[in-house]
């Protein structure tokens, strides 16, 4: 018989770290510097009905720490261009670019996914800059000779 895990849940108000508008982790001492910790935090991001949290199972305990984020909890950290355009998120999850789901808000590029959105970092924007076009006051993305308008919010 499986042993029942004890649950520890830390609400967002008591979390001692947060994610800034550019996808960087911070605590009261400043921006995180240790690459392995940063990566561990990113790949531990999960979502449930109560929001985004960092989750892990250790020993006989399931821990959830809900955290504050300034803009979005999910970011496009890299772009893979092959037959399709694949977005690599901060969580390491890979998803296909959906040009019809792109939008611009406050000079930032996002892609809606289900009931949320992911934000493109400067690095990921550079990787797709050759696909972006600007005409008048409207942005477009061109993929396989097809041009898609990017909505403004």
Written description of the protein model:
By secondary structure, the protein is mostly beta strands. It folds into two domains: 6-69, duf1285 like fold, CATH 3.10.540; 75-152, no CATH class. It is 10% helix and 52% strand. The protein contains two helices and 17 strands. It has helices spanning 35-43, 122-128, and strands spanning 6-10, 17-19, 25-27, 30-31, 45-48, 51-58, 61-66, 68-69, 75-81, 85-89, 94-96, 102-105, 108-113, 116-120, 132-135, 138-143, 146-152. The strands form three sheets. Strands 11-10-9-14-13-12-17-16-15 form a nine-stranded mixed beta sheet. The longest helix has 9 residues, at 35-43. It is elongated.
* Quaternary assembly: single chain
Number of domains: 2
State the end-to-end distance.
52 Å
Helix content class:
10-25%
Strand order of the largest sheet: 11-10-9-14-13-12-17-16-15
**Taking Cα atoms only, what radius of gyration do you get, to the nearest Å?**
18 Å
Write the layout of secondary structure elements.
Blueprint: E1 6-10, E2 17-19, E3 25-27, E4 30-31, H1 35-43, E5 45-48, E6 51-58, E7 61-66, E8 68-69, E9 75-81, E10 85-89, E11 94-96, E12 102-105, E13 108-113, E14 116-120, H2 122-128, E15 132-135, E16 138-143, E17 146-152
Parallel strand pairs: 1-7, 2-8, 9-14, 12-17
Antiparallel strand pairs: 2-3, 3-4, 5-6, 6-7, 9-10, 10-11, 12-13, 13-14, 15-16, 16-17
